[in-house]
Amino acid sequence: MIRHRPHGSGHPYQPTDDQRVPATPLAGQGFEVRASTGPQVTAVVCEWLTEDRALLLTAAVESGEEQDAAPVGDSGGDSDSHLAAAASGAARQDRKRWVARPEPLAEGASARYRFVATHADGRTHRTSWYSVSPAVWHEGATGLTVTGAAATRLVEGSTRTLTAGDGTPLRVRFALRLAPAEHVVGFGERYDAVDQRGRSLDAQVFEQYKGQGFTSRSYLPMPFAMVVGGDGWGFHVRTSRRTWYDVGAAEGDRLWIEAEVGPDGVLDTAGYAGRADQVLGAFLDETGRPERLPDWVFGLWASGNEWNTQARVMAEMDTHRELDIPVRALVIEAWSDESTFTAFRDARYDVHEDGSPHRLADFTFPAEGAWPDPKGMVDELHARGVSVLLWQIPLMKMRPHPAGQAAADARAMIENGYGVLEENGARPYRNRGWWFPLALMPDLTDPRARAWWLSKRRYLVDEIGVDGFKTDGGEHAWGADLHYADGTAGDAGNNRYPVEYPRAYGELLKECGKAPVTFSRAGFTGSQTAGAFWAGDEDSTWAAYRHSVNAGITASACGILYWGWDLAGFSGDVPDAELYLRATEFSTFVPIMQYHSEFNHHRLPLRDRTPWNIAERSGDPRVLEVFRRYAKLRERLVPYLVAETEAGLAENKPLMRGLFFDHADDPAIWEHQDQFLLGSALLVAPVTEPGATGRSVYLPAGDWVDVWTGEPVTGGGAIERHAPLGTIPVFATAARWPDLGPLFTEPA
């Protein structure tokens, strides 16, 4: 067999071994055409036809690239986890890559081509015929509209349109002026930096497994940014297609924006004028506002992927109680049968061959099984004040080949047309990524599919009583050839998928009388309306910690209100006591405080990120005492967090926010970009370097109080603050100190 896909898998950053590179070459630009074969093929030629000649191009074997894999990054973590193995396994394919390099095509030219493979026994295989014509950049962009504050900054003569050989618009490009003192923040959740000035990036939903801060990739990008300093303004490229940004990297005073467009070439970019809160407010007016979640989300969340039985879950919750460490939410990841993701593991029930939903009465739970009484467990946790979330993935697993109810559900999905389609609607889409490869994906733009998918999970909420869902994944839609029921193709629909996914689960929760608590890592414009988020998969390293601080500040600048991260990372060996406690300090002062750990095949020693496991593994007696102290402080802070959330929603100020929201006119804040406000009255300066016993803290003008000592400090400059392990620099505004002071004093 020989395979060629002109656009490959749709991987946004890495060409595959069977595609054109680039998929759409420019006129006069060199390019490759690739094909992949099995090892038994000994020769490949490319039959190349143009208007004036026919050529046989000999394809050479070249070493393949890692296909469809999510790079693990260079963050010093472990490569032996099950997710790391899956990522690298996607690349280990026993196939050859054959490459031919035609001469560049001139403007207006075109070519047809196919590959012919010869086996060792002399047999031949041919691909279909494919066509290629080069794209050309032209001056002007008739479909471009730039309004508001962005219009006054549009650089005259900067507009360009990239057109295909037949004249169809493909992309639009233009530049906006940047003033010397302006800083650019936003573009969704960004790990590499808070201020993106001087950098290049794009907005494309992508599962970057670990090491996000060493790239410009993001689970949760948005084509929106605020420009702080000077007059203050911002912009929103009103598209769900992929966009690119050069934020003064090539030309210091130019912000270049490039965007994919549809066949009509239309691209609308809105500009907003004003302070950060005014810019964010205008953006949220267009795209949707956060919905207030219940108070319990501000308590400590506990999770571990290896907590895969009722006994193990209750043992961990018992330990929380025994050690006097308050916990308000429990996320159970490994609860299901790992095939349907709707039934508890070891539950017994009759298969519904038509794929119809089950009710609780349809199940029996053996006493010797993993989950002998799920409802009783949830009831007991509720009695303890602990809310429960269950893990989900928006995929129908197809490897290994499904059996039982999973097979019936897959048949129902295909026969009823409930899945996203590919090849422009010709067949069901099969996941092209490395996690759950070849899985089917429900089309949540189809009301029928949405209702069916949620109906199979309804009993978990309205009968067992779970309080929310960890809506993991959502980045699985690759390729412009995908087709959605609402009429959109993949280029416009793929980035929207992780917005509709948690929204759908939120609707289910609300229908059952619950708050729409979802916990997601992926999203796009509009995700502000969809529950809570965490920063995704990351190693337990200092670099990952620093990158997560950036992620929280930038996500909040785009309207993500309920944000958290896996405290001290979730992957690899456990963090040492210093990293764990510094991460605990920081996590106490972000909207969602939660710990979580990756699956490790139940090997010993355990890699749980519970404070007692870190204490045991590190041998450091301070871990439990310090963690307990901060967990209790977090409980005392809940009323403050609730009140500040309400005020922030009214004022367009996120709960966690960079100093530029409240002190935009102070240029010195940009020397301390890792500092942030938690509400209007607390300034937080996390310690993110190993071995540090203090740090420089910048206090904007005004009167402040050190929350640990009660010492008054006059702002308007940087101070050196002593911060031994167990102490994070936090300052309260003097005006609010009389109310806040008691919160930072441990009860006798």
Radius of gyration: 27 Å
Major sheet characteristics:
8 strands, parallel
Question: Overall 3D geometry?
Answer: globular
Quote the distance from N terminus to C terminus. 75 Å
Kindly report the average pLDDT value. Answer: 95
DSSP helical segment count: 15
Helix content: 10-25%
What is the strand content? 15-25%
Strands of the widest sheet, in order across it, are 27-24-23-22-31-30-29-28
Q: Decide which structural class fits the backbone.
A: alpha+beta
Helices and strands in order:
Layout: E1 2-3, E2 20-21, E3 32-37, E4 41-49, E5 54-58, E6 60-62, H1 82-89, E7 96-100, E8 111-119, E9 124-126, E10 130-132, E11 136-139, E12 144-146, H2 148-151, E13 160-163, E14 169-177, E15 183-188, E16 199-203, E17 221-228, E18 233-237, E19 243-247, E20 254-260, E21 267-273, H3 276-287, E22 300-303, H4 310-322, E23 329-332, H5 374-383, E24 387-392, H6 404-415, E25 421-422, E26 427-428, H7 447-455, H8 458-462, E27 468-471, H9 490-493, H10 497-511, E28 519-520, E29 532-534, H11 542-557, E30 563-566, H12 577-587, E31 592-594, H13 611-618, H14 622-651, E32 656-658, E33 676-678, E34 682-684, E35 694-699, E36 703-706, E37 712-714, E38 717-722, E39 730-733, H15 737-740
Parallel strand pairs: 12-21, 22-23, 22-31, 23-24, 24-27, 28-29, 29-30, 30-31
Antiparallel strand pairs: 1-3, 2-3, 3-7, 4-5, 4-8, 6-7, 8-9, 8-10, 11-13, 13-14, 14-20, 15-17, 16-19, 17-18, 18-21, 19-20, 25-26, 32-33, 33-34, 34-39, 35-38, 36-37, 36-39
Helix pairs in contact: 12-14, 13-14
